[in-house]
Write a structure and sequence with these properties.
Strand content: 5-15%
Number of strands: 8
Distance between the termini: 30 Å
Radius of gyration: 27 Å
Number of helices: 23
């Protein structure tokens, strides 16, 4: 967008936005670009409820805009629910040691939390007095409905505590599970400690019997009762179809629980998002990182699992280049209007034109060094502003100087983003250092591969590259070859967006953030031409 020339200087500390949506609320409110995702998300009849995207793609921004756009909503942060106590719960460790599946238990926890939050929102339950008034009214409404017997049992059991903290509800449900297990096991095993070590001390025959009894307790949880509660809420509490109620959930990718518990809890939430569609004017909306969803499905899939059944509930956040250009342009205009003048100032007013003799436009140069998501673009432009501080115009020299800093930050950001899946990513990515920006597998010499393998050997075995290296050095039968290590490394680097590949001479290069998110071993073995992403050229000393 070209406007009148301006002589307004770029001030020190001027930036076009913070990288976290929570600290960027002011500019987000003024410069939000609606691509149609928000209206789809808030449509209670539309199934899309899981905002899916990579780090920095705008998931939290959608959550914040959604909260601002509706009248009735509640926000849940898993860090506030104190899920971490489950990691140290004796009864949970007891079940894990016996191999008892707790999927239903985690669903009950979420369903209870969501029911309580919806009731609080609907009836303004903030005190014991509010709670009592609500129950009296509710019992009068349902007095003649004997079909809702189980739902009434639920309200009788929990109704006087709807107003207390959510994490206390979860602890009470867990304590109830322990009491029910103790009752089910009975006097025959009355001396068993309901702990992980207690389960391990059982004989094999006792383990089978106790496991079966414990499984019956899990199977008999309140799930049927809670199903009737949903029907009851639909009929008596959320009967006004003109009013909409939303529960927004974010920060699921933060370290609020140990990874295994977190995966099970997120999978249970996804199931409950589907279940709560029974309430026609209620919608549960959650934001989830793409790599975290992959890990959740990978760690919780059972026999017969079909990932495609969940696709209709996902709302992928995808950005086009022109949309990101509009984001940058709008933010530049906003900060100049606020600090200087109402005269419009756009991207092309302060960024340089293509170099003489040909070359990319400034906006293309910037976007080529992103994974096509807002955070990357904001980060690069902010670094450029730092370098150009005090200047009226930005030069290509400013852009190149800022790129060195930006590239190092992008490398560290990849490590942070993918740390759960690839904890040794910074070691693996060294295989690319000093290579040509487009290279072949033949350029990855034995010395280069060996140096990286030595670094990976003592690394975290959660990383697939570490696992294959350890197998290689521990395999006396020669089943693992160095080519297998290279294949695993390239698959990992493709997944995180560090490289693109050309599977055949007739194909174009494909990238995980544009095309397919993962690549198979067969495809990577057939990919002889590999390209390093431009965002990493400076930090990895790539030859270009």
């Amino acid at each position: 967008m070209v406007r009148k020339k301006t002589s307004l200087a770029i001030k020190k500390n001027m930036k076009i936005g913070d990288l976290e949506a929570e600290t960027d609320r002011d500019l987000l409110g003024a410069c939000f670009i609606d691509k149609g995702d928000l209206s789809q998300l808030l449509n209670v009849k539309a199934p899309e409820a899981i905002i899916l995207g990579r780090t920095g793609s705008g998931k939290s921004a959608l959550i914040l805009k959604g909260i601002a756009a509706v009248n009735n909503s509640v926000f849940l942060d898993p860090s506030d629910i104190s899920i971490r106590f489950l990691e140290h719960s004796d009864i949970i460790q007891f079940f894990d040691a016996l191999g008892v599946k707790l999927d239903l238990f985690y669903q009950v926890l979420w369903r209870h939390v969501l029911v309580v939050e919806l009731l609080r929102m609907r009836y303004g339950l903030k005190s014991e007095h509010d709670n009592k008034s609500f129950l009296e009214k509710f019992y009068r409404l349902m007095a003649k409905d004997k079909l809702k017997k189980k739902a009434l049992e639920y309200f009788t059991e929990w109704g006087d505590r709807f107003w207390i903290d959510t994490d206390e509800h979860l602890r009470e449900i867990t304590r109830k599970l322990e009491r029910d297990v103790r009752t089910e096991i009975g006097a025959g095993w009355g001396t068993i400690a309901l702990t992980g070590s207690g389960a391990l001390n059982l004989s094999e025959s006792d383990k089978v019997e106790v496991s079966q009894r414990a499984s019956r307790v899990v199977s008999g949880l309140q799930i049927k009762k809670l199903n009737e509660v949903l029907d009851l809420l639909s009929e008596y509490a959320f009967e006004d179809r003109q009013k909409r109620y939303y529960v927004f959930i974010d920060k699921l990718d933060v370290d609020w629980a140990e990874t295994d518990i977190r995966c099970k809890f997120i999978r249970a939430l996804i199931e409950e998002v589907k279940t709560f569609r029974r309430l026609e004017n209620v919608k549960i909306i959650a934001a989830l990182r793409h790599d975290l969803l992959d890990m959740v499905f990978d760690r919780t899939r059972g026999s017969g699992f079909q990932e495609e059944k969940y696709e209709s509930y996902l709302l992928p956040v995808v950005w086009k280049r022109d949309e990101l250009g509009r984001v940058i342009d709008k933010r530049i205009n906003e900060i100049f209007v606020r600090q200087y003048t109402k005269q419009g100032v756009g991207f092309d007013d302060i960024f340089p034109p293509p170099k003489k003799g040909g070359g990319p436009k400034s906006i293309d140069y910037i976007l080529d060094r992103t994974l096509l998501r807002p955070r990357d673009a904001l980060q690069f432009v902010n670094e450029i502003f730092k370098v150009a501080s005090g200047s009226e115009k930005i030069s290509w020299r400013d852009i190149f100087a800022a790129e060195s800093i930006y590239s190092k930050k992008r490398l560290n950001s990849l490590k942070e983003e993918w740390g759960d899946i690839y904890p040794e990513l910074l070691e693996t990515i060294e295989i690319l250092r000093g290579l040509d920006y487009t290279f072949t597998r033949g350029q990855m010499t034995d010395d280069r591969i060996n140096d990286v393998c030595i670094s990976l050997f003592e690394g975290n075995s959660r990383d697939p590259c570490v696992r294959v290296v350890k197998k290689y050095f521990g395999d006396s039968g020669g089943k693992i070859k160095s080519s297998d290590i290279v294949t695993t490394m390239l698959m990992s680097l493709y997944h995180v967006g560090a490289i693109g590949v050309k599977i055949s001479s007739l194909d174009t290069f494909i990238w995980s953030y544009i095309d397919q998110p993962t690549i198979s071993r067969s495809e990577i073995r057939r990919s002889n031409h590999i390209k390093i992403h431009k965002m990493l050229w400076r930090s990895l000393n790539v030859v270009f």
